[in-house]
């Protein structure tokens, strides 16, 4: 496993889908440096991509110039060096945590599986109202390979 800085890696993007490939590439490379296999990397990248897409679509209603902050920390608040914590913060419409759920998987149609994907690819997923408005999504994933 590669050395990971003690400090958090932070970056901000505007709420446009055009920025998502950059986030996916950076996160995939980081996960590769942390020693994760292709399937594990893909799951983490997919979960973050779905979270960002949901923010753009639901919190910002497609507005392309709103801020989204992404923080990547090895260990996170729990201090477990063998976990990656991903915090994604927006300033959009606050999410009603009671209404966050995946649609029924028997309802076969495009879309609506982002929450299901996040919960299946990550070890923990937590939504919180952020100070000053918006939502803070915190997801963690153990770094031990599941492959």
SSE topology:
Layout: E1 9-14, H1 20-33, H2 38-59, E2 67-74, E3 83-90, H3 114-121, E4 124-129, E5 135-142
Helix pairs in contact: 1-2, 2-3
3D structure, described in words:
By secondary structure, the protein is of the alpha+beta class. The chain has a single domain (9-142), classed as Histidine kinase-like ATPase, C-terminal domain (Heat Shock Protein 90), CATH 3.30.565. It is built from 3 helices and 5 strands; from the N terminus they run βααββαββ. It has a 5-stranded antiparallel sheet, with helices on one face. A hairpin with a 5-residue loop joins β4 and β5.
Keywords:
single chain; 147 residues; 3 helices; 24% strand
Number of strands: 5
Classified in CATH, the superfamily is Histidine kinase-like ATPase, C-terminal domain
The percentage of residues in β strands lies in: 15-25%
Count of separate structural domains: 1
Radius of gyration (Å): 15 Å
Low-confidence segments: none
How many strands, which pairing sense, and closed or not: the largest β-sheet?
5 strands, antiparallel
**Level-2 CATH architecture:** 2-Layer Sandwich
Summarize this structure briefly.
The chain has 147 residues and is of the alpha+beta class. The chain has three helices and five strands; from the N terminus they run βααββαββ. A five-stranded antiparallel beta sheet has the order 1-2-3-5-4, with helices on one face.
